[in-house]
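Budget justification aside, the reviewers requested a transparent look at the raw inputs and outputs of the sequence design task funded under Objective 1. We therefore reproduce one unedited record. The lines immediately below are the structure tokens for a 280-residue chain.
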């Protein structure tokens, strides 16, 4: 039974990571209902994957104390005073038997340890400072329901069940309230008021780095010359994997070559990481 529960948890986490990064999600009849609940929760809060996701499935390190762990999700939610966006560190928990409002006492300690890490490890093995977390919580995903249970910042939780998070008056409520009182536009409007120019946040930058690393490749029909977009006379396949590019060249023709994308934020040893491309 424990092995089955662990397998379900691993599959749900893998699917959730792909969904948040905008990558294809494998069709799994057992996992699909849990992914549907994640989608419903994201929609209920008006989460824009490109703007409000700080990171997902990212390794957090505390070298001085000698520990590390994986953060399932860092996301900006309008839970502060006046709908101010706050950064949440969220741990996914899936179960086929436990109620959606239940939590374990060790969940608080686990999230507190991650919250106070010093750095995060990116897919290219570089490090960035740990984002400043304002709230932590457990997002319980069930096949037919879900609940976000907030955790206190420190100290073990003695209760094994807790009330799900209920936003302050006037803020977008969670999904377990009637749909009529949780319009998505409210959260979007709140986020816009706090970032009227739509600036790219550190959160979206970290998430974008993760999303690019998860890609198999891209089909490109243009390039940038200076600040001007230009249409290419050929189409180009780019990928982090040389094997993918060489396979594409065998199928459709073209010559593989090394390529460093303009303004690449993925780096190795201080220089742009080389991608492969096949011109056609």
């Amino acid at each position: 039974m424990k092995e089955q529960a662990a397998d379900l948890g691993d599959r749900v986490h893998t699917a959730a990571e792909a969904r948040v990064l905008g990558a294809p999600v494998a069709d799994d009849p057992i996992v699909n209902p849990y992914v549907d609940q994640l989608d419903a929760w994201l929609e209920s809060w008006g989460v824009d994957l490109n703007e409000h996701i700080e990171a997902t499935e990212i390794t957090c390190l505390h070298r001085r104390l000698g520990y590390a762990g994986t953060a399932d999700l860092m996301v900006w939610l309008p839970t502060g005073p006046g709908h101010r966006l706050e950064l949440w560190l969220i741990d996914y928990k899936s179960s086929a038997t436990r109620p959606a409002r239940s939590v374990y006492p060790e969940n608080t300690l686990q999230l507190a340890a991650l919250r106070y890490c010093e750095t995060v490890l990116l897919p290219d093995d570089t490090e960035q400072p740990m984002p400043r977390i304002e709230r932590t919580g457990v997002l319980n995903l069930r096949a037919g329901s879900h609940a976000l249970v907030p955790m206190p910042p420190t100290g073990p939780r003695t209760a094994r069940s807790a009330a799900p998070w209920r936003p302050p008056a006037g803020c977008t409520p969670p999904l377990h309230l009637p749909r009529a009182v949780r319009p998505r536009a409210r959260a979007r409007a709140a986020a816009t008021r706090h970032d009227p120019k739509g600036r790219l946040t550190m959160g979206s930058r970290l998430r974008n780095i993760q999303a690019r690393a998860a890609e198999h490749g891209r089909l490109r029909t243009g390039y940038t010359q200076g600040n001007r977009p230009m249409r290419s006379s050929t189409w180009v396949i780019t990928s982090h994997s040389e094997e993918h590019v060489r396979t594409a060249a065998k199928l459709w023709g073209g010559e593989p070559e090394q390529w460093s994308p303009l303004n690449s934020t993925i780096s190795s040893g201080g220089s742009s990481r080389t991608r492969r491309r096949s011109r056609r």
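Residues 155-163, 165-202, 263-280 have pLDDT under 50 and may be disordered. The two ends are 52 Å apart (CA to CA). Computational costs for records of this kind are itemized in the attached budget.
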